[in-house]
Specification:
By secondary structure, this protein is mostly beta strands. It has one helix at about 5-15; strands at about 20-25, 30-35, 55-60, 65-70, 80-90, 100-105, 115-120, 125-135, 140-145, 150-160. It has two domains: about 5-75, Adenine nucleotide alpha hydrolases-like domains (SH3 type barrels); about 80-160, Beta Barrel (Elongation Factor Tu (Ef-tu), domain 3). A hairpin with a 2-residue loop joins β9 and β10. The chain is elongated.
């Protein structure tokens, strides 16, 4: 844990600034960022871009181009995703015997339970497909699976589909 301080302040002590462009979906440059690691998908705060219309939100981080892609509107379609994949799941007991199961999942702290169907692959990875679109699930964050109040397991989101 980093204690009671801003995460960006903590990161800036260890990672050098790598400024890049902030672009909209059409590719128009609308601002500059100080490093992609300061931002997470769905983030609104700290973008320092104004303009007319709705607030701006992070929709994508293009690592190879060092570009932040933003969209306007809290529920913009670019922020809504159906599925996530996890490379390595950690089960609380043991992996379910069946390759598919219906359960509930969370991808964010204090999120309501989200109904989903999970497909478990022979290599131990899995994909979770949600009944309802999820707002800005993010690689690097956790997927936690539940059955009623029991935690089935969890893993780090590898990819958003």
């Amino acid at each position: 844990f980093i204690g009671e301080r801003k995460f960006s302040d903590f990161l800036s002590k260890y990672l050098p600034p790598t400024p890049g462009d902030i672009k909209d979906l059409e590719g128009k440059t609308i601002g500059k960022h100080q490093g992609l690691w300061f931002y997470t998908l769905g983030q609104r705060q700290g973008l320092d871009i104004g303009g007319a219309g709705d607030a701006w939100y992070v929709a994508e981080k293009k690592m190879t181009e060092n570009t932040l892609i933003v969209v306007q509107g809290h529920d913009h379609p670019s922020l809504l995703k159906q599925s996530v994949s996890v490379k390595k799941m950690h089960w609380t007991l043991k992996a379910p015997a069946q390759p598919r199961l219906k359960c509930f999942a969370k991808t964010r702290y204090r999120q309501d339970d989200q109904s989903c169907e999970v497909e478990i692959f022979p290599d131990g990875s899995l994909s979770a497909t949600f009944e309802e679109l999820q707002r800005a699930p993010t690689p690097g964050q956790s997927l936690v699976l539940y059955h009623d109040t029991q935690v089935l397991g969890g893993g780090v989101i590898e990819q958003v589909l």
